Amino acid sequence: MKKPNEPKRCWRIRGYDSLTLIFDQSVPTGQLTEGNMKELLRALVAKDLLPSELIGAYARRGTKIHNRFLEIQKENLPEKRRVLYTCGENPYYTADVEVCD
To answer: What is the superkingdom listed in this entry's lineage (predicted)?
Structure first.
């Protein structure tokens, strides 16, 4: 339960093409679970994949056609005690929780 003076928290979802920001949206954390956010990142990446790349993303690990395009990378950011989720290569999408504007 949220404390009375606790700031509102949001998922900050960003998309990048190389270093260029192509997407930026905040969603209150109460509207998406962590699992939903991971699936959303995969869906955002998948929409830009070729059919053969998408098949490779679902292929068994260690097989010739397997790729890691839809795998979620989790990075702990100690300076702000938060977690950054990343999916994709180029374009790629990130999500983390921060105080809403």
So the answer is: Bacteria
Report the distance separating Cα 69 and Cα 89, nearest Å.
6
How does pLDDT run across 40-69, given as a tens digit for each residue? Answer: 999 999 999 999 999 999 999 999 999 999
Instruction: Report the b/e string of 41-53 with b at 16+ CB within 10 A.
Output: bbebbbebbeeeb
Instruction: For the chain, list residues with pLDDT below 70.
Output: 1-4
Structure tokens at 65: 């056609």
- Percent of the chain as helix, strand, coil, to the nearest 5: 25, 40, 40
Spatial distance between the Cα atoms of 58 and 45, rounded to a whole number of angstroms = 13
Q: What is the value of pTM for the model shown?
A: 0.89
Q: Beginning with the edge strand found earlier in the chain, give each strand of the sheet holding 20-28 in spatial order.
A: 20-28, 9-17, 92-99, 82-88, 72-77
